[in-house]
Amino acid sequence: MTVSPDLNVDTVEEIQEASLLRDTMRAFARNRMALLGLVFVALLVFLAIFAPIVSPHDPYRMALDEQFLPPSTTYWLGTDNFGRDVLTRIIYGARISLVVGIVPSLISLIIGTFMGVLSGYIGGKVDFVIMRLADMMIAFPSLLLAMVVMYTLGANLFNIFVALALVGWAGVARVVRSQTLALKEKEFIEAAHANGASRVTIMFRHIFPNVVPTLIVLFSLSIPDAIMWESSLSFLGVGVQPPEASWGLLVSRGKEYLFQAPVVAIAPGVAILLTVLAFNFVGDGLRDALDPSMKD
Amino acid sequence: MTEKTDNVLSVRDLRTEFRGDRGHVRVLEDISFDVGRGKIVGLVGESGSGKSMTALSLMGLVPKPRGQVTATRMDLDGTDLTRLSQDGLRQLRGRDISMVFQEPMTSLNPVRKVWEQVGEPLAVHQGMKRRAIRARVLEMFEMVGIPDPKARLDAYPHQLSGGLRQRAMIAMGLICEPKLLIADEPTTALDVTTQAQILRLMLDLRDRVGTSIIMITHDLGIIAEMCDEVNVMYAGQIVEQANVFDLFERPSHPYTRGLLASIPKATEKRLSRRMPSIPGMVPNLAKLPGGCRFRPRCGDAMPICMQKDPGLADLGNGHGARCWLHLPHDAHPQGETA
Lengths: 296, 338
Fold this sequence. Notes:
The complex is a heterodimer.
Chain A: H1 20-29, H2 32-49, H3 51-54, H4 86-122, H5 124-139, H6 142-153, H7 157-183, H8 187-194, H9 199-235, H10 247-254, H11 262-290
Helix pairs in contact in A: 1-11, 2-4, 2-11, 4-5, 4-7, 4-9, 5-7, 6-7, 7-9, 8-9, 9-10, 9-11, 10-11
Chain B: E1 7-20, E2 23-36, E3 40-44, H1 51-59, E4 67-70, E5 73-76, E6 79-80, H2 86-92, E7 97-100, H3 114-118, H4 120-126, H5 130-143, H6 149-153, H7 162-174, E8 180-184, H8 192-209, E9 212-217, H9 220-226, E10 229-234, E11 237-243, H10 244-249, H11 254-261, H12 303-307, E12 313-314, E13 320-321
Parallel strand pairs in B: 3-9, 3-10, 7-8, 8-9
Antiparallel strand pairs in B: 1-2, 1-4, 1-5, 5-6, 10-11, 11-13, 12-13
Helix pairs in contact in B: 5-7, 7-8
Pfam families (chain A): BPD_transp_1, OppC_N
Subcellular location (chain A): Cell membrane
InterPro entries (chain A): BP-dependent_transpt_permease, MetI-like, MetI-like_sf, OppC_N
């Protein structure tokens, strides 16, 4: 039996609590790939926020005499079919793609977790209703569902969130439910009952923390998913509208000129790839850092 | 048994049954016993004899609606447990009656710090602030003999050994100073040295805190060492009830005798001899034999055993045995001699 050196309380104030946040950060920092991913994501966020300042050109200015220029010192990644700077458009695209990647994933995660824990723990009729609702969502062609939402509510960013969350929560709920089902048979849940803990306490203080590692993985996996979803919707004309730029839109427009100017489609594709990788690394690192048994 | 006023727990005619698709299974029947203040009462028996189910029934943890618990009396220091609602029972759990489980490795939540879990009853029942809970948990850790208790507060369960975890579980059980602590085979999962330490700790705490303890075990050695009163359980019934001296001096039920005979003795000269055992198996509770439940395995079975359950025969001094050997053969006791 060992006690990690981090827990040497003699160096801290009498019975001060070791903070979970600090423990987690320390464990996270030990993972190189996770750190690298975090740096990349941070850089991306920085670029997205300060796009007007950091980007070398105007993303909307067209110059038809500068179509499909190859990468050069003026245009680092060349220009597209309207002569717009590809790099600038990728930086601006990051704004939409990041938001669309993170916000709807977060919403479906929150709804899905709540529904999943409730469904798995309470069981019975509650379980039946929630799971049939989830089945409906999963059985329905989700692209169609998202398109219906976009058509009826109009194509804007907020409605993309609504559409993606509507599609996404059901999958999360199923995974969380199955975990909850396994967890609630555990002896420590019975011990919590023996302590007089209420059902709400057990759901949120005993079951939920055990689901968190799964949620982080789900989250880091759903970000790329959401980015791809956004590009599908944009591609179909119900998502982000040109001349706005999102990565999915850039790829789908650029692919028409794949042979003339491959960089136009490949560069935003690489951006998606790197972002997805970065988020996965961060997610992996977080999951390990939050797992108490990995801390020694 | 005589009614004593100084009982923390008094149970009469406790019956627990499960309703399944293929009829009822009565897992407990005719359970009556008392737990005196500051006493340790043992429940001993084989697996499936109903020891743990008795504990769950007392705690109100038998899964409803499939499981049904009834009793003519279930009194915890003046509180009638049979009348309490689900929520009333919940508020009692961890405060007035608490439980230590068999598996210290799995009865702590792996992702929560030990002190948060040990202090949970305080948060649930007394709404204490985190700082105060922490201080109290530290006190309890010192009391149950966890070395370097300050450092252990922020440990996660996997960082503690089995013995330390069981100490933490005992701290959790006692943190609200309950009237009754149910220990469900608290040492079964531990190695022998640790077992002895934990048992000594429990005796010591009983003396210091004054909590009464129900000790569930299949180990007669633990019974002999720890308990004041003993209830021997078989197939969902109490078959013999006595204080610990009477039980070992004058075992009166053939099952108890069989159990005592099957303890290997270190003084035995011929070690190669097969250990004595009770022939047969514990009956399936769904297909119980009529009459005495132990009859099929009993060397002393008589015709009457087949016809009627004997009920607890009173042998004086609170000693009872559910056996026709101690009753006139033509006796037909109508009520239970609880």
